[in-house]
Write a structure and sequence with these properties.
Alpha-Beta Plaits, two-stranded antiparallel ribbon, 6 helices, globular
Length: 269
């Protein structure tokens, strides 16, 4: 064991990124507040998101309004420090809008290299978003007998899984690991050009050997990447139409989206 600031760490294991997905649902009664109160609450919430986004590796907002009844939007946070997630939560709780928000789901994961691939990008074990228009997120648990298969059997199943995933060039996988730090084992997260692209990928993967070992892979959320203020304005109809996918090729921070390229699945253990 190696010490790090007084905390014992596993020797030789680099600390990965912490990746959080926090889902929000607004109380319908909030919409009956005076418009000035709603605007002030939304602005305070957005200011916190903007401030924190400037000091973490990634903080993106996705709208699910009108699609999933239990969530209106979610935040995707990527950071090197677990404490950043706590600080973000505390700061958001201090805004007026927080009194009207529920958190029906919240998922926490970390990054690490997959044991099933030696691809250079995968060895890095890092989440590097490409700002695609949509993100699909869900918790994932395998049945326990999977872990009693030989490594060769598991590797063969995951190799087939990855080879199929590589054919879907508009879908990028950002799976993270949750063993011991949240209720699920993994958090698969897929950026996609269209939600239907991911549907076709998942339908194909149902026929693979690895799929036989799935215990749970719901609930599934499909979010649309938007500026945080757009997501909040959608809560009370201040905006009635979200940007189309064709206009989303400029990210909320002003950077251009990369064109879709061939991506290998970041296979999970």
């Amino acid at each position: 064991m190696a010490g790090n600031g007084g905390v014992e760490r596993i020797e030789g294991v680099e600390v990965g990124q912490y990746v959080g997905y926090r889902f929000f649902r607004v109380d319908p009664a909030w919409r009956r507040l005076p418009i000035d109160e709603r605007i002030a609450g939304k602005e305070a919430f957005a200011d916190v998101v903007d401030e924190v986004a400037g000091r973490v590796e990634g903080l993106r907002t996705y709208s699910t309004v009108g699609v999933r009844p239990e969530a209106d939007f979610f935040l995707w946070t990527i950071t090197q420090s677990y404490d950043d997630l706590l600080a973000l939560g505390a700061a958001l709780n201090g805004t007026p809008l927080a009194a009207w928000l529920e958190t029906p789901y919240s998922y926490l994961g970390t990054t690490k290299p997959s044991v099933y691939t030696d691809k250079k990008r995968m060895r890095q074990g890092r989440v590097l978003p490409r700002n695609a228009p949509y993100l699909v997120v869900y918790p994932f648990v395998k049945i326990r007998p999977w872990y009693f298969l030989s490594f060769e059997e598991r590797a063969a199943a995951m190799r087939q899984h990855a080879e199929i995933g590589a054919k879907f060039v508009t879908v990028t996988n950002h799976t993270t690991y949750s063993f011991g730090i949240d209720d699920q084992e993994f958090i698969p997260a897929f950026e996609a050009e269209e939600p239907a692209d991911f549907m076709h990928l998942m339908m194909t993967l149902r026929e693979t050997e690895a799929s036989r070992w799935t215990e749970r892979d719901t609930p599934i959320f499909v979010g649309k990447l938007v500026d945080v203020r757009t997501a909040l304005d959608a809560l009370d109809g201040a905006v009635s139409e979200l940007p189309s996918a064709s206009t989303l090729y400029t990210a909320p921070d002003g950077t251009r989206y990369p064109s879709p390229t061939r991506e290998q699945l970041h296979v999970s253990d």
